[in-house]
Structures are given as structure tokens and as C-alpha cells.
Amino acid sequence: MSYWQSVLAQMGWPAGADDRPLQSIALTSCGHGHGVSTVALNVAVAASVTADVLLIDANFHRPSLANLLQVPASPGLIEALAGSSPPIRSVNRSQSGRLSVLPVGTDTDFSQCHHERLTPLLRTLASDYDLLIWDFPPVTPDADFLSWLLPMDRVFLVMQHGEIDARAAQSGTTTLRRMGVDISGVIVNQSRERSMGF
Question: Considering the entire predicted model, what is its pTM?
């Protein structure tokens, strides 16, 4: 078992504690530069060895997955939510195993998203893939995406080893809990021990 596959197992995939298959995992952080996109990509690649995985770039402010995977940047998530492009046209197949990617799109104006379409989109995507991995921007008190985390099966915080700001972490976790978001765990990125704490 690879390191990232062991991380997946600790995250509860493929089955949750109640033996229900997990369909959606969200990754976020309490600040910029913690490597959320890198962790999301590695976890997605590891899962795609044995499952059909969709990696979704929901980082509207600093999208990077299209560039990392060398797929078209649009149409993407925002176009799918705006109704200007069907989800199936927005998904790109990568060259890595059974991994596909849904980029954020070129119209990165978050205000154009139809938030009420998120849950139906989540159901549609979950019917086509074994696992959805969402790459979200950092959690801040004025973050405009926090309600998007509520329908996710698991929400994990990514923290860069050696750069963990205790006040930012406390503020982020407090913000999430006030929104009713259950934090499933913390992934310490690039730690020497490659540890994962809960």
C-alpha cells in the first residue's frame, strides 16, 4: 500500500465507520500555501488505481488543477452550476489511471454560481464516479463557499508542516463549526513523519 493509499484508508475510504461508502471528500485549509491542491491530486491519483475518481477544482480564487493535469480550463464547475455547460462536457479524463478532473472554469466570478444547483450536481456526479474529491480555497471568516462543505461526506483540513499558524487554525475550525461543518481530520502536508492526525 502506498503512502497516499494509506492516507485514504485513514480518511475512511472506501467505507465509512458505519460501512456506508464515502462518495465525497472535501479538502481545505486555514490559510494559503498549505498545498491543498497537491494533497487533493495525490489522494485522487491513489484512489484512481482501483476506482473511478473525479477531482473537482473548487478553488475559485486560485485554481490550479487544470494546469497541473494539463487539461482545458473550461468549461468547468462554474459553467456547470450556471447552466451554460452540462457537467459531462466540463469533465476531462486525465492520463492517470481512472482519474477525471472538473476544472473550476474560466468564469471565476463566484457570484455567478447558482448555489442551489450544488446538491443536484453532487448527486449527478456521484452517480457517475466512485469518489469525488473537492479542492476548496482556505477557510476565512468571510469565505463565500462555506455552505458548500455541508453536503460533503468528509471535510479535512490540510496544514503545511512547520507553517501551522495556531491562531489561523483556531479561527478556521471555529468558523467551520459555527457553520455546522463537521471536521473529519487534519492532514499534515510534507511532514517528515508523513503523519495524519485526527
Answer: 0.86
